[in-house]
Hints:
The chain is of the alpha/beta class. Helix content is about 55%, strand content about 15%.
Amino acid sequence: MSTAFSSAALNTTDILSSQIMSRTRVLLIEDNPADAQLVQEALADLKDRELYGPIFEVKCATRLSTGLACLSQGEFDVVLLDLSLPDSESLEDTFERVRIQAPNLPIIVLTGLGDETLGLKVVKNGGQDYLIKARADRHLLIKAVRYAIERKRTEQALRESEERFRSIVETTREWIWSTDTEGVCTYSNPAVEFILGYKPEELVSKNNLCLVHEEDRATLERLLVEGRVQKRGWSSVVLRWQHRDRGFRWLESYAVPIISASGELLGHRGTDRDITERERTQKARMQLELRLITVQEDERHRIARELHDQTGQSLAALMLGLKSLSNSDQLQGSAYARLKQLHDLANDLARDVHHLALDLRPTALDDLGLQIALSNYVEDWSERWKISADCHTHGLEKQRLSSTIETTI
């Protein structure tokens, strides 16, 4: 029994210590002594503090000027404000001056029985709650104070989160946007001016399709249709967008659908990243590679021509001379056999030079076109490897392809 009693006593002490350390500081601005005393007594009643939580520390001010001075000098968690103060210019002025002095504090307005409309108006202008004095008991007052503090903290956290998000959205170099289901812009961040030269307000209520390059417009139309039907967005879609200077920028687009609570598609929200420099670099690299291939093919063509025209002709003349000597009656025995070996070697060499010239660049490709070059290549390959093969082409009989495409094939 004594052990259990000691434990209970210790727990009670811990609870009270915790409550004392987490006191709620209340500033009561009320000129009516009787009303002020009722509020102070309600908040000072500790009989239910284990149920209601923190202990309230109340400071009372009887005039608006005194209350404003308290706010500037001390720290409070909540303000209980009577709007009918002797030194205020009007009821609205009382609330506004307190709100300006303590913008981050929750304000609960205390009104008379006939001021309920005014209390609602004040709440719409930023007050956390209003209490009619004649109806406010201890439980209602404590509940209003605790809820007001929590709501204010939640609002402050939400406001800070929105400010951080807005700061990110407004300072990023990526174009962040939202549209309706038809592609009409409903929001654009300032980055669009850096990317496309337009101010955000110039794009709002404007259909994005009119800014897309005419060759890419069908792609965006297809994405919007698929988005409406399947309620989905898109990823890594590259489109050309018109800049204010009449040029075009390459943008890589990402989008997600905006879905209502009822499951209805409201539009899309996404980001576009300017990849114009990347596209220009890639295009320049492709052009450089094309020039390099052209130079390489020209050199292969030159070497193939020399092998075919000069080396081939020299080998042909050599073979004719060797054949002429072999037909002579002056050679006999080993000399004739040696001459025949040289003739066969020259014949093999001529064939190898011919194949090498074909591998470098077949002359038929430049002179007669791709169809004849392919047909000759298949025929030569079939003969070289003793494998039967046929070549069939379609559409190459009447019109030749560009030299670049023919070379690539």
